[in-house]
Fold:
Amino acid sequence: MQQVNIGIIGGGTVGSGVFHHLENNGALLESRLGIKIGLRKIAVKSLDEPRPYKIPASLMTTDWTAVVNDPNVHVVIELVGGTTLAKTMILTALKLGKPVITANKALLSAHGEELFAAARKYHTNLYYEASVAGGVPIIKALREGFVGNRITHIYGIVNGTCNYILTRMKLEGTDFQPTLAEAQRLGYAEADPGLDIDGFDSKHKIGILASLAHGFWVPPEKIYVEGVRAISRADIEFAGKLGYTIKLLGVVKGGKAVQASVYPALVPNAHVLASVNHVFNAVFVRGDVVGDTLFYGRGAGKDATASAVMSDIADAALDFKHGTRHRIPPFVPHDRHGKVLPIADVVCRYYLRLSVIDKPGTLAKITAILAESKIGISSVIQPEGHEGRSVPLILMSHDAPNAAMQKALAKIAKSPVVKAQPVMIRVESFD
Structure:
């Protein structure tokens, strides 16, 4: 039986997870592939750093070049993260003609086009199933399973931290800050949670999915991003009364002009994505042939990510076995005329929460401002039982361009009947 040897750069949470599961399931993998998998070396930052699964000292080195340059290492796995040294590591391996497996969504988002070009130039491959949604096989689905489809819609809950926080806020009626603190205590949120709660982690992942689905590389700076810091308990409660659940969504839809955005959105409770709770991820994909599909599972962690890395190990091993390094290229730019739709031109419905003076004529003033921007109102809620001069006013709008809504909100904020900054959350209808 042929043997393919792998080397891993990064022996932390994910790297030790890959080692552990290769130890447990390596024989199963080999029996399914008809090729032996050998682990040559694992480069780590420190030999004695704490890690979830113990790695034998004989396998470890602190010199990543010893892994990449080893002539007996056929496939390199990069699991260190970051966008600087990791890029150097991957390019070094590709220049040697070695296939690379990575889970690095931030690097792919920022430099994917360059890395894919290098893989082509040096006649090798780049595998990245673990870069989006952990153990959920969404990359393989878009590259292979849906190759005969035009992808018209993608909606992704792709950040477990945000989904956990929003789920707890809904189920327990808590506010954002204490819920975030609890998520940090439990290890579901980082000490500095900005990458997650400000939407940038989701942006990296949605950019990769948008590029694969539409055949042109979506520049990260073209993706509109809005996080969840401003979501309040009141908004979650009012959304529930209207029949919606608030989720942080990555949204990709359109044709030649593609919307690629990340923002909190009201999701109808009848839609399957409304039921995706806690740290789980889900990606809803609509193709013109297949129709609606859903991919659901754990989006992060040592085991889910290791599962995706092992899938890529299998693909790389089979390609090595059959001498077909480019059987499925990492990215095929098949639509060079595509472009990203500016958020100002995106059309959707909106949820508005205003704090207004409780007196006759207030609602008429607000609706008149919206009418000036050609924005219609579909429903209004003004709850009873709020004492004092300011009361909440909840409006649901009809479809309108984002630019029109922003213009209207600027006028509403200046109105003397409005006592606080207006809150606006987009509504997705999944039509």
